Amino acid sequence: MSAAPPRIFDRALLRARLARAARLGAETFLLDRAAEDLADRLGAVNRRFENALKLRKPGPAVAAALAGHPGVGRLFAAAPLAAALAGRAGVVADEEALPFAEGSLDLVVSALSLQQVNDLPGVLAQVRRALRPDGLFLGVLLGGGSLGELRQAFAAAETEMTGGLSPRVAPFADVRDLGALLQRTGFALPVTDVDRVVVRYGSPFTLLQDLRRMGATNALAERHRRPLGRVMLMRALEIYAERFADPDGKVRATFDLVWLSGWVPHESQQKPLAPGSAKMRLADALRPKGTD
Asked: What is the pTM of this model?
């Protein structure tokens, strides 16, 4: 029996935060960017995907970007909240328990919905199982140095005022680890790359407002249950402004959008040559012409 994955995120709280963001009026600039890039990346693939699935993220950005896309046939959604489907074809489902039959899909896309799952390897394994041979997974999630400035500011303020630390900003996976994870879960031709987005804000407080409207505030299972005090918060924002402000007074916030793509293995796909099958030695290939 395999061990249960660690509980990093409070998924019930995360759903509540997403619902609150929708009520407040969601901030979608990152999702809009991701949706546009996703459509461009699919446009470079000379394939027709008859049955495509969009994983979770509330809002119409991904569906709108793919609407009428020549390579995408039927697009439906899986989301943990019925309201997130907004009348579109789909099912109410959590990413960690996808209710799709083996080999039932041609394409699965995910835009900024997988950085807060507790079992990312398990999710990718389920996606691979649901895809037909030569099916494609294309996703983007926050990774690497995302919100590193905020993490440092909170850590400095808490250390200064209490002498300790508690988790305030979610951990994000490194691009190299995510590439290895695609291979580990059985995807062929894995590709990863990073789109680093640096956003400038008039103040750190405006960043916190945006995170609230993204549903991206602290949902860590091991978070401190007491609210962050006003004095601590103001000191953290002060440190943020001191360390990460540009000459014009605006502060920077980094978001790393890590793109992942992988195909379910199929006999038609290119395969690496077997070891020892090369017809020429590397030394011979590198020797300048006209030399012995």
From this structure: 0.85
